[in-house]
Amino acid sequence: MGRGDGGDEMWRGGAEAVLDLQPNSSISITYDTFFGAPSDLLLLELDDKLLPQILQNRVTIRGEPDEEAVLCTPAGTYALKYVGTSNSVFLIPPSGPSSNVSDPSPVKVASVIKLAPGVMELVEVAPRLDKLKELLAENPYRPEEDSMEELEEKDGLRRLRWEDLVERVQASDEELKDALKDNSAVEINGYWRIVDEKYMDMVLNMLLHNLVLNEWSLEGFEEDQVLGIMGSDGFPLKIVLHCLEVYGRRVNLNDELSGKMKMERFMEAWMDKIPAGMSAGFEMLEGEVLVENIGVETWIWAFSVSSLPSTPAERFAALFQARQKWEWKDLQPYIRDLRVPGLSSESLLLKYTRRTQPTMDAEPVFSAR
Amino acid sequence: MQIRVKCECGESSCREWAIVELQGVVEAQPAFQDRIQDLEIGVLCRSSSQEKYTFTVGYHELSGSKVAIKKPLLVLKKKKLSDSEGLLGSSSNSSKIELEVIGIIRHRILFKTRPRALISRSEPQIKEKVNKASPSVQ
């Protein structure tokens, strides 16, 4: 029966016959010839939802010999808990693939290969990330390395490739990636590093200097231009990009920057567009554009009253979403068309806004209720 | 270190193992204790009523049933990979371990009750005994 399907799985088996035992029939349960031989079998209890991950080979067990092992799926980390049993759990493997082919008679014997002393259970846990911090802190990237050859090894310091991290940190791939981001780590020449804090400050300082020197706005500048300047100052692009990533926010040029324009540029462009002999005044744009002072600059962007909802509640919601605080002169063009029978514009303001006036002669400011 | 959990059987064809589980311990008679291999433990019998099973061990009979396991159990086999099996780039000299999924368990035949002593030797299950080793449940 079922022997010789290669390797050391030479047991007789018989699980099918046990599981499919028909009513009014019986089967003999015996110890296998190889019962008690070291077989290195483990039972792992798991949720049906984790089963596909295992069957698709997406699961590993992580941890060093002195740590409690965890099982990691691509996204989750699970502690492995051994739960023993005092019952006798007889394990019966299936018959080898070659059995029953030449022997059509029903199997009368099923063989126990092992008494299972217990099972491993899984408990979802938080990833164990303290070690990642320690590992990263051992060897931060310092400015001296800017001029070093890429492959130059610093003796005695650990190099952390992704493969090293998954060998040493008890976290799933996704959790590990998130943690690297949270720790502001960056992959430099294939190794994961944090950048020395003082060095980061220096890069940021130089970056800000360059923005000022080149009259680029802190609110929005082009990455390529900044990288070019910083590169010519001798900073590795990888570090500059990392600095931008950590302290900056990537904006899409098409929707954010072209939406806002500097006031002077806007006025220039507007004057170009109107026919000669006609005059234009900024007050004509009431209810069409919003103006904002950012630092010393004045920016302008389209915000048309006709694009806003016409019921008072929704109108005010949209207004306060665009801007938290409104002065009366800005707000008035956006609400003067609201007409509610029996409600004056004063009572509309009372109903939907909170009015604050720091001093008696200051302009009142309206914010959301 | 990292231990890969490997499965070659694929989702549909993971082979099912069986568990026969009972309370307590089955002990062979002293003469057989050192060589229980191939010894019969008992006879598993399914009665005419659908899910009732008996397990006769020596002069004892257990009654139980086939139950589905709420969470499936995977049978994993620890495998040591020799260095020849593709450890390119790995500098560690300790042999790598891999866990291979070799089966899945979804059911067990569970005997929860205390054994009932069989008085008469003429019980059919006893006659079927191949081996006269007479293990007993303790």
TrEMBL record, chain A:
GO BP terms in the entry: DNA replication; maintenance of mitotic sister chromatid cohesion
GO CC entries: chromatin; chromosome, centromeric region; Ctf18 RFC-like complex
UniProt xrefs under InterPro entries: Dcc1
Endpoints of the signal sequence: none
Record keywords, A-Z: DNA replication
Family the UniProt entry places it in: Belongs to the DCC1 family.
Name assigned to this protein: Sister chromatid cohesion protein DCC1
Naturally occurring in which organism (per UniProt): Stephania yunnanensis
UniProt lineage: Eukaryota, Viridiplantae, Streptophyta, Embryophyta, Tracheophyta
UniProtKB/TrEMBL annotation, chain B:
GO biological process, one term: mitotic sister chromatid cohesion
Matching Pfam families: Ctf8
InterPro entries, sorted: Ctf8
Gene Ontology cellular component annotations, sorted alphabetically: Ctf18 RFC-like complex
Lineage top rank: taxon: Eukaryota
Protein name as catalogued: Chromosome transmission fidelity protein 8
Species of provenance: Stephania yunnanensis
